[in-house]
Amino acid sequence: MNRQRDPIIALATAKGRASVGIIRLSGEGVLQISKALCHKDLHPRHATLLTFEDDQGDLIDEGLAIFFPGPNSYTGEDVLELQCHGSVAALNLLIEHCLKIGKPHRLRLAAPGEFTERAFLNNKIDLAQAEAIADLIDASSALAAKGAAKSLKGEFSKKIQIFLEALIELRALTEATLDFPEEEIDFIEQHDVFNRLKNILSNIQDVKKSAQQGAVIRDGLTIVLVGQPNVGKSSLMNALAGEEVAIVTEVAGTTRDRLKETIQIEGVPLHIIDTAGLRETTDSVEQIGIERTWKSIEQADLVLHLMDVSDGAEISALDQELINKIKDIATKQVPIKIVWNKLDRASSCHKNTQNEFYVSAKTGLGLEALKQELLSVAGWQPDAEGGILARQRHIEALLEAEQFINNALVLLKRETASVDLAAEEMRLAQDALSKITGEFLPDDLLGKIFSTFCIGK
C-alpha cells in the first residue's frame, strides 16, 4: 500500500474561533468522495453553495465546495476544498463525516506538510519554494514576508537553476575534451573553462550574500543579557523592547528566571533573553534562575555583559571572572560585548569602542548606537540587495558549492592541470546546489523538512 497515493484530509486554516474555516482533501478517490459528500457533480474551479449533512441527514453546516482536478491544483492531484463557518466543533464533525465517506478510498488525516510535500513530489514546486511557503506562514515581519514571497515566486530557485545549467554545460564540454582527445574539434579551451568557472563562482558568492541576509531576517539573533544583580539588565530589555516587559525594582535579585522577548530593529528579529543576576546566593529559587542563565549563554549568538558605569568604567575582578567563565562554557565562539549602563549617573564622559558601549537604559542615551551594533553582529547590511528568505541548509549548500569550485580552479591553475579532477569537483558543486531545489536529497531529510510544516499545508 502506497501512503503517498492515499487521499488525505486536514483543516487548512488555523484552529480556533473564526469567521471561515477551510477543509482540504487531496489524492486518488477525491472525485468520488466529492460526489458522495455533495450529492452532485461540481463544476471544476467554481464555488458551489451546499448544505453538508451527516449520515442521519442532520445539518452540519452550510458552505462552499470547490473541486480542482489534477494536475492543475496545488498538489497536482484532485483537490477538494470545503469552505465553512469557522466553528471548531462543526469543522471537526465535517472532517469525521468525510473520513466515513472516504473510508473505501482509504481517506486518512494528513501528516504535517503533506499537501506541500505532494506538490513537491508532483513537480508543482521545488524544495526551496516549498520551504518558502512555511517561511511565509511563519514570517514575523514585513521584510520576512517579502523575502519568503520572492523565494515562493521562484527567484532563488531560478538563480540556482542558472548555476546548475552553467556547470552542466561546462562539465559536458570538459569531459568531451577528455573523452575524445583524438578529435580535431576543440570542445573548449582550458583557459575558457577557468574563466567561466570563475564567473560562476562570483555569481554564487553574490547569491550567498543575499541568502545570508535572508537568514538574518528569518532567524534573527539570540542575545543574552548577563551581569551582576542591579546593573540594569531588565531596564535595558524594557528599553530595547520599547515597553515594560520585565519587572524593575531596586531590590537585587528581582529577576529569578529567564525572560524572553522578541523585538524587531529595521525588520530584523532579535530574541532578547533577560537573565537572573549572577552572584553567590543561598536562595534556592534564585539558584535555579542562575543555572538557567548559564544554559542560555550556551545557546546565545551574542552576550551583552552589563556593568554599572556609575561605579567607574573599570572591570571588577568578579566581572572579569564572569567573562572568563562565559568564554569557557559557550558552545561556539560567542561574541561578548560589554555594556556600561547608567550613563546618566556617570561622573565623566565615555566613548564607545568596538566591544564596549555606554548607555542609559533609563534615558535612552546611547541606545541607538547599541542597536546598530546588534544589527552589525547579526550580519545585517541595510544597503545590501533585498535578501531571499534562505535557510541555514541553503547557505551550507552554497558554501559547499563554492568550495568545490575553488578546488576546481586550483586544479586548473597547476602547470600540469588535472582537468579530469576539476571536472569531478564541478560535479560535486552541481550536487551541492541540487540539494537546494531538492533534486539531490535523501528521503529522510525530505521527511524531516516537511514534518516542520503546519498540518493542512
Automatic annotation (TrEMBL):
Chain sites annotated for binding K(+): 230, 249, 251, 254
Primary enzyme class: hydrolase
Binding site for Mg(2+): 234, 255
Co-factor remark: Binds 1 potassium ion per subunit.
Classification via CDD domains: trmE, TrmE_N
Enzyme Commission code: 3.6.-.-
Domain of life: Bacteria
UniProt KW keywords: Cytoplasm, GTP-binding, Hydrolase, Magnesium, Metal-binding, Nucleotide-binding, Potassium, tRNA processing
Cofactor(s) essential for the protein: K(+)
The TrmE-type G domain, residue ranges: 220-379
Gene3D superfamilies: P-loop containing nucleotide triphosphate hydrolases, Probable tRNA modification gtpase trme, domain 1, tRNA modification GTPase MnmE domain 2
Oligomer and partners: Homodimer. Heterotetramer of two MnmE and two MnmG subunits.
Cited function: Exhibits a very high intrinsic GTPase hydrolysis rate. Involved in the addition of a carboxymethylaminomethyl (cmnm) group at the wobble position (U34) of certain tRNAs, forming tRNA-cmnm(5)s(2)U34.
Protein name: tRNA modification GTPase MnmE
Organism per entry: Polynucleobacter victoriensis
Organism taxonomic ancestry: Bacteria, Pseudomonadati, Pseudomonadota, Betaproteobacteria, Burkholderiales
